[in-house]
Design brief:
about 500 residues; single chain; five-stranded parallel beta sheet; about 30% helix; alpha/beta; 16 helices
């Protein structure tokens, strides 16, 4: 079904840069490139493709779906065939009749502005009858519980909700080969369970599935084989029997995350209770969208100083909105916010708080990685900036353009900028999205370092491994938010 024979690939200058978090290269860079890689995937096989950030997982998917070399140019040798066709010579629209892809950043694959049109787009493009399209959409909406997302603007969805629409738009095509690039990166536990069920259904239907993932636990029972990449080469393959026998310790030694399920649902620790004036104290905090619908109504919330507090909850519950309001990005928020006994208005909070966004592409502006850190500093200090880059394994990319980095590298760069800013309160929106095990631990270590420096750290996350590794307190947003349902924006 899928055959890669002795494939080597290096991206051309400026190629591989995309608006999403999965951009993987710069000119002649080894990052994301492949070296003499051979891989055979049989019809109906479920392959888990994993390895460190920038190891080439996304590049493999781009070869299978024909984006390389038809969209991303570079030096390609070897052969890639899918269903008997040479994809390097086939037209993309022909390959798209067989292969569907869910990108790491769903924004980069949307063609419409509303959810209904996006779900219908691929089938409409093939000229399917309207009744058939509506029937397919209805079935997928039911399977993925997407009713609340119908008729919505794609621009107003959370990252996890966008990912659900991307998966659904692929499901509607009913293609026999499905590729997914970090599909769980921004999903809550409930939605990951729904994704697992969808993947299981596709597997039962005999689809050939290749998933590039760091968070492997929800796929462990589904995969027929695990293929581990490092520096563009396959370094290990695990059969189903080997996967069944593998321990977390063995996987960690290979740089992989745990294959164990996350466990019980998050519960608020209640650590925010107390009378100390040093707390980050939020009172009568309200936020309504432009249409007047209430999204946040928080009578009181206390966040302990100099600790790492996780803010958890389901997709679409307002976690990102909460962070945007807390740091003063949105002027429509109302309420009182005090820290260490002093009240801070919106503009004052902008100088007190640093936010690392969920989509870090929105906050990378400079021509080089080093410059990105320097503009984050109150007083530029190149030596200090280089030390921060070294602590996050980014030194070799100091002269690279930030948008040429992989998704995980961009995430680490944004964390580096937060450290460089020196601000007292650090907010992180899904900081380990798209990160492998080792870099997840690295982010956890950096958060602990910020805590040791006396910083108050607030992390919105679905990553249970990160919470277990470094978070002191866990606060479920829904336990504090009286707005029962976050309505349409």
């Amino acid at each position: 079904m899928i055959e890669l024979k002795d494939v080597s690939f290096v991206y051309g200058a400026g190629e591989g840069i995309e608006s999403g978090a999965a951009g993987e290269i710069g000119a002649k860079s080894a990052n994301g490139s492949l070296s003499h890689l051979s891989l055979s995937i049989t019809t109906g096989e479920f392959i888990l493709l994993t390895g460190g950030s920038g190891c080439g997982k996304t590049t493999v998917l781009r070869l299978i779906n024909g984006l390389i070399p038809n969209f991303y140019e570079g030096e390609l040798s070897g052969s890639v065939s899918v269903d008997g066709a040479d994809v390097s010579r086939a037209e993309l629209y022909d390959t798209a009749k067989t292969v569907s892809t869910v990108f790491q950043n769903p924004r980069s694959q949307f063609f419409n502005v509303d959810t209904d049109s996006e779900l219908a787009f691929a089938c409409e493009n093939r000229g399917m009858p309207e009744a058939e399209i509506r029937s397919r959409i209805a079935a997928v909406v039911c399977e993925l519980h997407l009713e609340p997302l119908l008729g919505r603007s794609l621009f107003n969805l959370s990252g996890g909700q966008k990912q659900k629409i991307a998966c659904a738009s692929v499901a509607v095509t009913q293609n026999k080969i499905v590729l997914l690039d970090e599909p769980s990166a921004n999903l809550d536990a409930r939605t990951i369970d729904e994704l697992h069920a969808l993947l299981a259904k596709w597997k039962d239907e005999g689809k050939t599935i290749v998933v590039a993932e760091h968070r492997i636990s929800y796929l462990w029972d589904l995969a027929d084989r695990t293929v581990i990449l490092n520096d563009g080469r396959i370094v290990r393959e695990l059969s189903r029997a080997q996967m069944d026998a593998a321990t977390d310790e063995e996987l960690h030694a290979l740089g992989l995350r745990s294959h164990q399920a996350g466990g019980a649902a998050f519960k608020s620790s209640g650590a925010g209770a107390g009378d100390t004036g040093d707390f980050l104290r939020i009172n009568n905090f309200r936020y309504a969208y432009g249409n007047g619908h209430l999204a946040l109504d928080i009578p009181a919330m206390d966040i302990a100083p100099a600790k790492i507090t996780a803010i958890v909850g389901n997709n679409g519950e307002g976690k990102t909105t909460f962070l945007n309001c807390l740091c003063g990005l949105d002027r429509r928020a109302r309420g009182s916010i005090s820290f260490r006994g002093r009240n801070y208005k919106r503009r004052q909070r902008q100088k007190l708080v640093f936010l690392v966004m969920q989509d870090v592409n929105h906050q990378l502006f400079s021509e080089t990685v080093l410059d990105e850190l320097l503009i984050s500093m109150k007083d530029e200090d190149e030596d200090a900036a280089r030390k921060i880059l070294a602590s996050l394994d980014l030194s070799e990319y100091s002269e690279r353009h930030p948008m040429s980095l992989s998704g995980g590298q961009k995430q680490r760069l944004a964390v580096a900028c937060a450290i460089a800013s020196g601000r007292d309160i650090m907010l992180f929106d899904e900081p380990t999205s798209g990160l492998d095990y080792l870099h997840m631990l690295q982010i956890g270590a950096m958060l602990r370092q910020l805590k040791a420096m006396g910083k108050t750290v607030v992390v919105v996350t679905h990553d249970r491994e990160l919470v277990r590794d470094c978070c002191d307190d866990v606060l479920c947003l829904k336990d504090f938010n009286r707005a029962e349902n976050i309505p349409e924006r």
